[in-house]
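Build the 3D complex.
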Amino acid sequence: MLLGAGPVIPNFGSGTSCEVNNGWFCTSWVRAHWGDTLQPALVQHVELSVLAVVIGLAIAFVLALVGFRWRLLDPPIGVFSDFLYTIPSLALFQLLVPLTGLSVLTVEIALVSYTLLILYRNLIEGLRAVPADVVEAARGSGFTRMQTFLRIELPLALPALLAGLRIATVSTISIATIAPIVIAKGLGNPIFIALKQNTFKTEIFAAGGLAVALALTADGLLVLAQRGLTPWTRRARA
Amino acid sequence: MPGPEAGKMTLAEQFRPHTFVEAFRFMGDHPGLLLSKTGGLLALALAALGIALVLALPLGLWLGHLHRGLFVAAGISNVGRALPSLVLIAFGLTVLGIGFWNNAVALVVLAVPPILTNAYFAIDGVDRDAVEAARGMGMTEAQVLRRVELPLGLPLVLAGVRIAAIFVIATATIAAIAGGGGLGDIIVNQATYGLAGVIAASLCVSFLAFLAALTLALVRRAVSPRHMPLA
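Done.
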């Protein structure tokens, strides 16, 4: 294992009695190791996830434009993203190692792969659901094709896109916990280390709790963004 | 697991596509090992999926039939998604300890949300006119659910089962980190099996996931309501 700098390994010998006895949750350990273990892992986790979602969104957006414009290309793109989604995460990480090595690139390729299916599907379905007569009316009042897309179709597809973004973000945060199989980064790292250290409970609960809290926080923030960006949907459903 | 020298290698040095050839050679050399590990994974995944189906399917279908519990169904799916597989496995290991059934419990927790939520929304979304017509014909509530709502909602119900199956196979692999056995054992144990072995096991588990997804897709197609000529 590549370990990050700092004494991340719990010292069963010299900690408080709770730590020595591997108690259920030792606040003393969390306080002592927030700065050198938990906080850096949390920051890395956010970085890994945000990068993956942003890249995934960009790729899915281009793919959705292609699939929306040329309907014939939609099935192959859909099948391909479905194919990527089906590969178990642990296997995908390892399958990329001979190609891109033990690098952040490997982790990001895997994480991005899992966002594509959800983002692509939601974008395409959102764009398709725009009523034809609305598009017709826009074209009739002199909008170019580009203007129609940017000012009519895209805003109307926004709720579907944001719904997909929520699922993709939460899934990415979840899958990113497996990243330490490739590089020692993210909240999965303390968990992997604790599992090796005779299942040091405090570290598992602290890092795992942080991962869940991060996912729920991200979800909550995206719900707020949803309300802010698409106020017209608020009455439809919570 | 990365070796200590890995960090110093450049990307070009780490680019070893011939590992895939070695992986296939590994498959040829150790078919028995891979088969028994596949069997271990399959047993765990099927046990978990089976329990999850028994628990979640009737509840989701019945709640959907009553059009009640939207909050429960949506909430369970949100919380379920926010629970990382690794965290779940690690928590399970910490609280329950190592063992087949302990891992199965963690997998069930993961498989329940997609099955329950999809079953709920599948039945909840069935055309109300069709349901009313069935009631008007004198069907009991159970008959309405079994003969009208279930056939119409089945494709969506099966979509949930498919997601659950993919989740369970992926997480059953991760369970090896917590001593769960199965193909994941090879994937997380590069020191013993080498990168070729790791890749071979990764290919096997991916194949297994595709097989599960394909099977459920075929079942879904077979049971989807078609525009049938009226007999």
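Confidence is low (pLDDT under 50) at residues 1-7 of chain A.
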